[in-house]
Amino acid sequence: MIHGFENSEDAAVYELDEHNYLVNTVDFFTPIHHDPYIFGQITAANAVSDVFAMGGNILNCLNVLAFPNEIEPEVITEILKGAMDKVNEAGGVIAGGHTISTDHIIYGLSVNGTVPKGQLKTNDGAKTNQKIILTKKIGTGIYSKEININKELEDCKEVVESMTTLNKKAAKIIHKYAVSAVTDVTGFGLLGHLSEVAKASKVSANIYMDRVPLFERTRKLCIEYANGGMVRNVNYFGKYIEFTKEAKTQENINILFDPQTSGGLMIFVDEDDCDGLLRELHQEGILQATVIGETGERSDKLIKVHGR
């Protein structure tokens, strides 16, 4: 075992042979979207993202599924079909799984992947004076109710498209540049996952609120659709964070601690390579990719948030 619990890595890493590591992860949750096919796609994109964040390729997945007996079979079929199509797009296959009967739907996947030894990316690899790039917009947790209420609005469609988009392309691009650490932004929110990297890497970070890419109404909805995940993230990770006076608003706190579903990659890249990496991400259609801050020497607080 190369990586397990110690640094809150995105996945477990086991030495497979002299050239490759085996990467294992699992993720599941209750339906986030009213359409079962789209729910399956979102769930699969979210589950395989951990392997991409560690620099790997997808091999196979197993379904983890619980549902009530009275659910129409067509609903389950569509969930599984959505996931299968997304896993195939990711380069893997679904090879089976397990189901149980419960009073509500829970679905996810156990994922196996491989990564060449020279390409493994971990939480403890960030260095001082690196730029921090985020590849997707923030706000999926805030929008989780809105996308089912006003699903025809353009910003809601954009949120769904973001959650069904794989991090595969970005994960391939980063290997060309001086990238020393990567994580994906999911349930712990932007500041939670950044805290894990900063703590494991023994660095601190500055984040600039006006640079963080947001969906159109993330700020407008962040108070109305505050959620329990935000509170849990604040309670656990808040001790690591310092907000400047102008940055310390309830809106900013909710946004930066909002649990993300199938969020983007957070990439730590040497300053000299930052412009080239950002340019290629944009050229490959990852237009939301943005530099949101930089790392520095370890200080009392792991992260300082600036701006409005």
From TrEMBL:
UniProt entry keywords in alphabetical sequence: ATP-binding, Kinase, Nucleotide-binding, Selenium, Transferase
A GO cellular-component term linked to this record: cytoplasm
Superkingdom, natural source: Bacteria
Annotated TM spans: none
Annotated EC: 2.7.9.3
Sequence ranges assigned to domain PurM-like C-terminal in this UniProt record: 130-299
SUPFAM superfamilies registered for this protein in UniProt: PurM C-terminal domain-like (SSF56042), PurM N-terminal domain-like (SSF55326)
Enzymatic class: transferase
InterPro entries per the UniProt record, alphabetical: PurM-like_C_dom, PurM-like_C_sf, PurM-like_N, PurM-like_N_sf, SPS/SelD
Keyword hit for NAD: no
GO molecular function, one term: ATP binding
CDD domains on file: SelD (cd02195)
Signal peptide: none
Sections of the chain in a coiled coil: none
Record-annotated PurM-like N-terminal domain positions: 9-115
BP GO annotations: selenocysteine biosynthetic process
PANTHER family given in the database record: INACTIVE SELENIDE, WATER DIKINASE-LIKE PROTEIN-RELATED, SELENIDE, WATER DIKINASE
Protein's recorded name: Selenide water dikinase protein
Annotated organism of origin: Haloplasma contractile SSD-17B
Chain's gene name: selD
